[in-house]
Design a protein that fits this description.
The complex is a heterooctamer, with six copies of chain A and two copies of chain G. Chain A is built from eight helices and no strands. By secondary structure, chain A is mainly α. Chain A has one domain: Up-down Bundle (Methane Monooxygenase Hydroxylase, Chain G, domain 1), CATH 1.20.58.2140. The N and C termini of chain A lie far apart (74 Å). Chain G has two domains: 140 residues, Methane Monooxygenase Hydroxylase, Chain G, domain 1, CATH 1.20.58.190; 101 residues, Translin, domain 2 (Methane Monooxygenase Hydroxylase, Chain G, domain 1, Up-down Bundle). Chain G is built from nine helices and no strands. The chains are: A mainly alpha, G mainly alpha. The structure holds manganese (II) ion (MN) (2 copies).
Amino acid sequence: KMDSDQVEKINGLLERDVELRENIKDQVNELDKKTRTMVGLLNKIHSTPPDALPALLESVRPTLLSCRDVTGALSTIIPPNQFWRWKDMWSNSMRTAVFAAALIEYLSNRALLSLSQAAELLGIKEEFSDRMTLPVEDYLHSLISLVNELSRLAVNAVTLGNFEEPIRISMFVKDLFAGFSMLNLKNDTLRRRYDSLKYDIKKIEEVVYDVSLRKLASPSPRPS
Amino acid sequence: KMDSDQVEKINGLLERDVELRENIKDQVNELDKKTRTMVGLLNKIHSTPPDALPALLESVRPTLLSCRDVTGALSTIIPPNQFWRWKDMWSNSMRTAVFAAALIEYLSNRALLSLSQAAELLGIKEEFSDRMTLPVEDYLHSLISLVNELSRLAVNAVTLGNFEEPIRISMFVKDLFAGFSMLNLKNDTLRRRYDSLKYDIKKIEEVVYDVSLRKLASPSPRPS
Amino acid sequence: KMDSDQVEKINGLLERDVELRENIKDQVNELDKKTRTMVGLLNKIHSTPPDALPALLESVRPTLLSCRDVTGALSTIIPPNQFWRWKDMWSNSMRTAVFAAALIEYLSNRALLSLSQAAELLGIKEEFSDRMTLPVEDYLHSLISLVNELSRLAVNAVTLGNFEEPIRISMFVKDLFAGFSMLNLKNDTLRRRYDSLKYDIKKIEEVVYDVSLRKLASPSPRPS
Amino acid sequence: KMDSDQVEKINGLLERDVELRENIKDQVNELDKKTRTMVGLLNKIHSTPPDALPALLESVRPTLLSCRDVTGALSTIIPPNQFWRWKDMWSNSMRTAVFAAALIEYLSNRALLSLSQAAELLGIKEEFSDRMTLPVEDYLHSLISLVNELSRLAVNAVTLGNFEEPIRISMFVKDLFAGFSMLNLKNDTLRRRYDSLKYDIKKIEEVVYDVSLRKLASPSPRPS
Amino acid sequence: KMDSDQVEKINGLLERDVELRENIKDQVNELDKKTRTMVGLLNKIHSTPPDALPALLESVRPTLLSCRDVTGALSTIIPPNQFWRWKDMWSNSMRTAVFAAALIEYLSNRALLSLSQAAELLGIKEEFSDRMTLPVEDYLHSLISLVNELSRLAVNAVTLGNFEEPIRISMFVKDLFAGFSMLNLKNDTLRRRYDSLKYDIKKIEEVVYDVSLRKLASPSPRPS
Amino acid sequence: KMDSDQVEKINGLLERDVELRENIKDQVNELDKKTRTMVGLLNKIHSTPPDALPALLESVRPTLLSCRDVTGALSTIIPPNQFWRWKDMWSNSMRTAVFAAALIEYLSNRALLSLSQAAELLGIKEEFSDRMTLPVEDYLHSLISLVNELSRLAVNAVTLGNFEEPIRISMFVKDLFAGFSMLNLKNDTLRRRYDSLKYDIKKIEEVVYDVSLRKLASPSPRPS
Amino acid sequence: LMATSTTASVALPTVTHLFDDFRADLDDHNDRRERLIKASRDITNLSKKTIFLLHRLALEQPAADDQNPGKRAAQQGYEKLREVQNIYSKLQSELVGDRFWRYQRQVSPGLQEYIEALSFAHYLEHGTLIPFDEVQKTLMDSEGVEQYVPLSVSDYLLGLSDLTGELMRFAISGISRRGGRAKAVEVCAFVRGCKADFERMSPYIRDLRKKQIVTAQSLEKIEDAAYAIAVRSSEYDLPPELLDDIVAQSISN
Amino acid sequence: LMATSTTASVALPTVTHLFDDFRADLDDHNDRRERLIKASRDITNLSKKTIFLLHRLALEQPAADDQNPGKRAAQQGYEKLREVQNIYSKLQSELVGDRFWRYQRQVSPGLQEYIEALSFAHYLEHGTLIPFDEVQKTLMDSEGVEQYVPLSVSDYLLGLSDLTGELMRFAISGISRRGGRAKAVEVCAFVRGCKADFERMSPYIRDLRKKQIVTAQSLEKIEDAAYAIAVRSSEYDLPPELLDDIVAQSISN
Ligand SMILES: [Mn+2]
Ligand SMILES: [Mn+2]
């Protein structure tokens, strides 16, 4: 017989999870709003001339940093050890946030945001690790989104008369791709998205081709 | 640029997971063999007369207890905090093991195996909790499997001439069902399986009906 | 160009619906709790002797009547004319409530609860009709659930030694079925559930057969 | 017992709905023919030079306006308050009609057809609102179809030697997309279709790129 | 691109088929009403004493014969050679009509209605064969329905005190089953329904068993 | 119920296959590492000037030849006649290896690597044929990958100032496409990939077009 | 008592006899179904091969003196399709009277593939859509009296719908041939017209609605190709034939 | 300049020649595949017919002097399956060497259906599961030297798994025959054993896992039938044969 103690205990466990899920959902909604704002603002890079870019990027930074409120809150809400139980609820949003951070970093410094920089920017502290961390897969997903966006930027930069940008993007993306190709990815979404990178690279190469064919800019030879 | 340090670090993380998955898989295969052996043996309850039952149950117990080797090994292999990351790999097998334990408990003592008893039997220690624990959902899945099996047993017991068994099963299952119906299950697999329990109950009620109609045994009245 | 007025107006429309959905969901959760309670209590009819039945049914009635709070609240929340937009959110729960009402009615008065009685009991007023009404399909679904339950009751009544009950159930259900068979149901869920009624009827007939074969009770001949 | 009054009343209700469905279906077939005619004619925009466009659009307008017959008929057929009950039967056709209207509006006036303009064009009057209205979701679906079509048009305009069109389309679509991205769409079909808009935008951007790279036309700089 | 006279010709052909389908549907609705009536009346055999049976059967016959109007009309509507194109529209109804005919025949004469008798009764003439015929499959489906109904009748006859009926049914059904087992069926509905026949036979057998063992049956000569 | 020696025998056979699969998997992992290395190195052809190419190709050759270790090992592991049973495990990797070989051959000698040359290079001996062979399908897959890569190279060669390359590639690829179009392919992956070849040809053609019309290409005799 | 039991065993043969006929009837039906499935597979395969053949021939550079290279390709296609017509002529008795509609589900796939191949050849020769009656004629004996297999509008339209996919392949693969660019633009207009024509018929035929989606995709592919041609040639103020010549020369040199 | 252009047109035949071989190879493969698909359909049909035949024979009341009616039925089954064996003997060259595994997906469905039929006949004769080697033997020439088609463990087990469904039909249909009740109980135990045996093998074979679910359902159906027998006869304190006799008499009277 399932005595009432048992029933109560089990019901307690089940209901705690229901409530937890609600709380997490609220935070994810919050994060979603932030990433939507960032993506909306960053969308303007495709029509912004180079000199106006820094101001645009600066306008995004406050929202980016405010994501720390969410990661902080999540690190409090998630019970110890249960990071992996709930992470699917926010992975998509978090990947978008990391993508935004990486795009800002590239456009500001022409540099690749590292995994630990990304975690730091988003306020994901080492000591949260059993409740909130930035898994390497999510970081890699964000980098792939970065490449997707840069291939679009290469096209639009030319439209804006900026013929150097595609060449810089080309070099950055090729390095990134070379890095990726050394990883041992298994057959999952990440692998499929990585495989699709070659279309972005081809697109960028074609832009560079168009530009150099018309002698609008010329790719500098690089050490192999 | 993704420098080679980064690449190496990331590759290290990815490969650690690949290896981990391999190791877990080996343990799960092990557990799978054990549960299949138990299910194969327990299948004989449907053709075993009551007096031969204790010996049959006894023959399953060693395999059941040997599951502790697997849970112990898993608790060593799984990195801290990553229980929820990997648990889908073994939930099915673990549920079958708990089902076997609960069936043995019922047939031996006409009692319901509690969640903590189940964990204890399978060697899942409190201190493993961030690497290996028995979630309440899995325990409930096992109890539903138990009811599925008992409804079949009610039928086969009568075939073997044991007319009291269905009446005992009926009482046990109704108590269990009453317990379940007090839980706040959300709309998922567990809920669907719970909903299907009513077919098992109907089947058991029909067996009790057949037996009592023919006065082969009579259900003792119980306080409502 | 989609001007900001347009955007704001559209967003207002979309968000009003999101909020509305939330509010309805709360009410449906409320209703769900009530129907779960009623179903839990009514489940005891299968083990309750005839003389204890009235008290059992009486204990359900307050919960049944309290469903009026929900229907009242819904009739306030739902905007004019939008009954059919949202009704899928509560049809299942409402059907269960009507089923409970019809079962109580049958067990109290051996009578069929009519559509208007059902609406009245649940506090669904004529004047709500563009926001809250009881569609005939839902009422019929509830009657089918009633038959499902009565076929189970016929079996369990015999187990409890009540040999007259199946005969009464048989007559009631046959009348109901004859009514149903005059309806022009199209090929949908209702039709499929109606088609499945013949299994319930067969089951009830077999119980009556068992009882009369053993001369435990005899069906009185009836005017055709 | 289900008395014959009850049966008759219920059957009356059921049959009224069957007949209603038939009548609606006839009207939807009518609307379907009209929208297919419009789509067939509008298909020619992809091979029509700019100066012949007004005549083409004019040839579609009578069919567009004749949709008012259908909406008028529907507003008569649908019983009060039952708009949401039946709307799934015609949403697809209605969305196509609104799409056609919005495409004509864009090609005639380079303007976005507003929700109220769309309703007005299709003869959906304010006073019909409990029987026939144009829900905002359907309007948004039509706008997405418009973008799909315009991205194709950008390509075909260039083939026809019209190098300005893609630039105008690009500006129109970017404004529309910016409007969309401010809406709070939930995770449904509309959201998925909105997400797919980025492929259309990329395609249009690439056309603008090709055109401006070759100095066939130049996008005027716009205030960001 | 099609010639306009081709378009017209093909549209003409397509519209002819639409009209044809409408006409057939009207006839099928007609037939459906008739079979619903017959099934409703024949449902009373389960509570009708043997002596009142002939009158009951007689009351069904006019409706049965009126099915000839439908088959006659269909044979006029269907174009030459197109029987198989449209037959799915009415097979279900026709199978029910043949089932009714076969049940009446069995209850009147304890004989199996042959395929040609069935066709004749329903007014399906040899000369209609490329537009209206009674395919073997449909006839067999009806016989299976007959067995389903007889297994129910075997039970109810005993309840009514008629202990001969199950034995006669048993012999009739066994012959029929032997016939069915001569067929090589492929994996379709007929096969699945044939497969279920064994449960009907088992049920009838159980009744015969009960009746024989209670020595309630008096020996009776078997009608040939 | 199986004889216990049958059970043992069959279990033996099943476990042998499991072990076999493990062994093959190890070899495939080995091959995967090699092909990843080769693809990484060969990716540099897109940024390598013609005079540095031989050295680059030379650097790949040792890895290519080391694939013979894997094919040799597989030919020992696979039981007689079971090539087709296991080949899906390595076809992808093997196709990549053959692709690498064919690319090297083209870039070194402007020649098509034949099937037998490919097999020879990879150490797939005639006498292995029932355990390890190079099926035509796989070889053709590799050639399609070659064309994919060459279309990318045509673009990048121009970027690097090499205007002869696209014209040579164009002639080579056209011959190959003519060869492919001689085949009767069924609807499988090969067919789909063959179908996509026309886009590569179109792309190459566009480069040739650009190059020719800008009169940048100096006439060069075609190597036979 | 013995007598009645004899009656019983006499009654049995009646059912047996009855079901003997049913068995023969069902076996006959199933056997015919099998034969038609097998024949349909053969027809599908032959038609697919014909389509490959037509693509191959269409891709070959025509001889200088060939006025209508499409016609030459089509002739070879018709020739090969005669094998299919032979199969149908042998199937005639299996599909006579009401049998066609009985076995339509088995027959249609092959028939549609045949129509696809036939209409492709017809397009290469005439640049038009083959009319319904002409398809029908190819499935008649030489006197034009007996129809081997009835032609339904649905099979006709579904076969033609598949043609658009082949035309897309034909147009894009041919772009690098001399005159291929002009051909692609021509096919683009043709397929656009087909799509519009089928649009009005698609409510009547379930599968056609699905195939229209594929046609739309094919059309977009051709449009993209036509666009690429237009955009590239717009940089130069030269007539297309001259552009073709310049490109051809730079390759053949 | 002319010279190089000649070289070009000489180079071409090499690719053409190469692909000519590929075409022959692929066509050969596709044709064989088609032949095997067709043969496999025939084998499936013959096997299904054999299963129906076995059910029919098993249902017939045995002649009084028939010691082993199951054996007689099985013999007729074996006889009919010889047609299947003949097909396999003709397919031998298509499946020789590495070809079996190449075409396994085409061959397996028929092979499994054959094993289902063969094992059914074997069960009727012996009441046991046919051993692996014996299945293999039926697919050899009369000297037992040449194997027409290799037997894989997977096909063997999947065929046997389907057998349990047929045994369920056999047990329940036979319940009304004299001795059928005892037979049903026997089959119940047998199928229960099969299910337990297959359980341990199912992790190795994907499809077997799915088929185990069907086997579990069949087993439950037999158990329910056995239950109905037990519950009804438990009201009377008589041996089952006597019960059978009483029932038989009340019917035959
Ligand atoms: Mn095709
Ligand atoms: Mn089977």
